[in-house]
Design goal:
The chain is α/β, with parallel strands linked by helices and 358 residues long. The protein has helices at 27-54, 95-152, 177-185, 197-205, 274-286, 289-292, 324-336; strands at residues 164-167, 210-218, 222-229, 232-238, 241-246, 251-255, 264-265, 295-300, 306-310, 315-319, 345-347, 355-357. The radius of gyration is 67 Å and the shape is elongated.
């Protein structure tokens, strides 16, 4: 007897492929793909049925799970399948994009308005700075002009006669005070800043008895004049009168007699005696004041034969006016040495080897 045949197990049809989302532009292609897929599925399901009736049923096979790609995120139920490569995906604007457009436009408008305001503020600041500088320059120019007028032309700062002081031209000098006042009278009423100090000093130097002068402004309306008078060092006979000469051999004054204490020079004025007279004046000017006061008379035939007679009766032989400083020191030392009262002649014509005679 033949064994009964084994029951044949029908092979379940394969799962139809899931539909894939595609862009609206590929709708026709998707429909065609669906039609082809359904036909293939129908043929696939029909083929096993026909084969099942002819061939023996195979053993059932266990389904093995598909290996999942490492790092892939689990799919949630109902999530749409990712688009295939090459598929065109169209993103439709939603509510979020529509709501962000006005906000972005408003932000751009606000930024543009802020930039415009800043530019306007900067322009206003520049105009204000320019106006301030122009105003400051105008005020400065007006103040300078007013100050210049007050200083240079206004009588507010003009010299007053009672504000002018003069020193060095008083009693005991040979300065012509009237001539000094006449020179200074021209400055009365002149603005102090316009007084010519240099020219005024030159005019004062021309006054008899004035050796030098210093002019200072005493603001706001005064002058200070300091006069350096010429001091006579010798009295020289001049036609029955006596001419007083200073250290520069300039005539200081002319008098009937020589002042007390002033040495009398026995050298008349004239062109022929100019050089001996200048040597005598130079020697007298080099003497200290206390020693010059002890000189009674000075004479010279030539410029190399100057001699002096002291008030105590002694004589000093100077020779020329060479080595004056050394000769003065030697004479002062000799007259201060013990026993100088008996000395009648001091010969310092050769100062390195002085000679004294009693």
């Amino acid at each position: 007897m033949r064994p009964p045949p084994r029951p044949r197990t029908a092979v379940p049809p394969a799962d139809p492929p899931q539909p894939r989302r595609a862009a609206p532009g590929a709708a026709s292609k998707t429909a065609a793909s669906k039609t082809a897929a359904s036909k293939a599925a129908a043929s696939t399901s029909a083929a096993p049925k026909a084969a099942a009736s002819k061939a023996p049923a195979p053993r059932p096979r266990a389904k093995l799970p598909r290996p999942k790609s490492r790092g892939a995120a689990p799919k949630s139920p109902g999530a749409p399948a990712p688009p295939q490569a090459g598929a065109v995906v169209r993103v439709l604007p939603g509510r979020g994009a529509a709501s962000r457009a006005p906000a972005e436009a408003m932000a751009r408008a606000t930024a543009a308005a802020s930039v415009t305001e800043r530019l306007a503020e900067r322009a206003a600041a520049r105009r204000h700075l320019l106006h301030s500088r122009i105003l400051a320059a105008t005020i400065t120019a007006l103040v300078a002009a007013a100050a210049g007028w007050v200083i240079l032309f206004s009588p507010l700062l003009a010299v007053r006669a009672d504000a002018v002081s003069v020193t060095g031209a008083g009693t005991g000098t040979y300065v012509d005070a009237a001539a000094v006042q006449a020179v200074l009278a021209g400055t009365t009423g002149v603005p102090l800043a316009r007084v010519d100090a240099a020219g005024l000093r030159d005019r004062l130097r021309e006054v008899r008895g004035v050796r030098d002068a210093e002019v200072r402004r005493a603001w706001p309306r005064g002058l200070r004049i300091v006069v350096s008078p010429r001091l006579p060092v010798a009295a020289v006979p001049d036609g029955g009168r006596v001419a007083l000469l200073d250290a520069e051999a300039v005539r200081v004054a002319t008098q009937a007699t020589a002042p007390k204490g002033l040495p009398v020079v026995d050298v008349p004025l004239g062109e022929r005696t100019e050089r001996p007279l200048r040597s005598v004046i130079a020697i007298l000017a080099a003497l200290p004041a206390d020693l010059r006061a002890q000189v009674d008379e000075v004479g010279a035939q030539t410029q190399d034969s100057v001699r002096m007679r002291m008030r105590d009766g002694s004589q000093v032989l100077w020779g020329s006016d060479d080595d004056l400083a050394l000769k003065v020191r030697v004479l002062v030392a000799l007259r201060a040495a013990p026993g100088h009262e008996q000395v009648r002649v001091y010969d310092v014509s050769a100062p390195s080897a002085p000679v004294t005679r009693t």
